[in-house]
Amino acid sequence: MEGRVGREEAVKLFDENDLNILSLWAWRIKEEKNGNIIWYNRNFHLEPSNVCSHRCNFCSYRRESDSDQGAWSMTLDEIREYCREKFVKGMTEVHVVGSVHPKRDLSYYLKIIEILREELPQEVTIKGFSAVEIDDMSKSSKKSVVEILTEMKKRGLSALPGGGAEIFDSEVRKKICPDKSDAKKWIEIHRTAHKLGIRSNATMLFGHIESRANRVDHLLALRDLQDETGGFDAFIPLLYKSANNPMSSIGEADITEILKTFAISRIVLDNTPHIKSYWPMLGRELCQLTLLYGADDIDGTVNDSTKIYSMAGSQESKPLMTPEELEKIAAGCGCIAVERDSFYNRITKKTVLL
Ligand code: V47
Question: What residue spans of 170-322 are helical by DSSP H?
Fold first, then answer.
């Protein structure tokens, strides 16, 4: 096919139901961009709190207040302690994402970055805070996004995770996450980050009430921003998991819809270097299958440090994989797993885990 895939064509690809063609096409793009490599890193997550003033109907993780059952909010001392407990020599990334806590202010989040920088070796990248969290910090502190990101960068933040994008369509957003920053804001914050030299990822929450055309529009909006800034490293299709949240009754997408979404993401996002298949959400088997539909990255070792997906019903109730297990997933697809840092530089020196 000549040229870029446009809106109509992309929706047609969903409707035509030709999984074999999609797999071959997405695989070819993946090979052109990444050869037979599947990337992974050694990482852990920090989720400072699940108390959140936003009421997203897909979220199984949020609690209304600190006194609710299952709620947690870490103090700065607890964060320091947690970091010492979770960090294993050889890790190259900490991924920070939490909630919009009604009582935390900007100084708390800046202090988190300082603590991480004090506790972790220099080669560990701090990838932290979704655009939605940054937007809330900006509102509560009355500082601009540029000021906040500049302060964060000064303290050691190097990348933003892709969360909070959900589905950009405003009607769907009203129904699934009525009080979240809108698409325009999400895009503006990532544009600002890119201009400041802070790289980022992008996500899309799919398999709920959105249409296929909504998904395609979401991808096209990301493609436009990437044309402009080139600041996205990876795109992560996040499968809606239905346990324990207000939207549970709609169930989950079937496997063909999931595989098509990965392949069409790879095909449409021709300017994005990596498509990440996030195994703590998909489970190992499905994650492996998506590698045949355009994904080239399987995130990382994670070290049992995220609860977002286990609380939403993922089969990975304690997400933790060794590099050897990640390598086996790649090998099953005829690929070679290569360890990377947060910016897809190869890690050549194998660190022995003590
Ligand atoms: O924005 C919440 C999603 C996201 C559910 O940048 C759910 O490397 C499915 O952004 N079912 C946060 N998804 C996580 C995130 C992320 C994850 C992995 C890697 C990266 C990266 C970023 O989690 C939220 C929302 O879209 N989410 N609840 C649920 N029930």
Answer: 170-176, 183-195, 212-229, 255-268, 279-282, 284-290
Class of residue 265 by CB neighbours under 10 A (exposed 0-12, middle 13-18, buried 19+): buried
Helix (H) or strand (E) holding 237: strand 232-239
The conformational region for residue 347 under phi > 0 = left, psi -120 to 50 = alpha, else beta, is beta
CB of 14 within 8 A of CB of 260?
Answer: yes
Percentage of the chain exceeding pLDDT 90: 92
Q: What is the pLDDT of residues 267-283, one digit of tens each?
A: 999 999 999 999 999 99
Asked whether 59 lines ligand 1 (CB < 6 A), one says yes
**pLDDT computed for residue 309 by the predictor:** 87
40 CB under 6 A from ligand 1?
no
pTM to 2 decimal places: 0.97
Q: What CATH architecture applies to the domain 7-339? A: Alpha-Beta Barrel (3.20)
Please tell me the residue having the least CA distance from ligand 1 atom 28. Answer: 59
Q: Is the CB of 129 under 6 A from ligand 1?
A: no
Distance 129 CA to ligand 1 centre (A): 12
CA atoms within 13 A on the CB side of 61: 24
DSSP state of 340: B
Q: Write the pLDDT tens digit of every residue in 161-192.
A: 999 999 999 999 999 999 999 999 999 999 99
- CA–centroid distance, 349 to ligand 1, in Å, is 31
- For 7, 135, 144, 237, the CA distances from 185, given in Å and listed in that order, are 23, 8, 12, 20
For residue 338, the cross-strand partners are 39
pLDDT at residue 354 is higher than 90: no
* pLDDT at position 351 over 90: no
What SS3 state is found at 177? coil
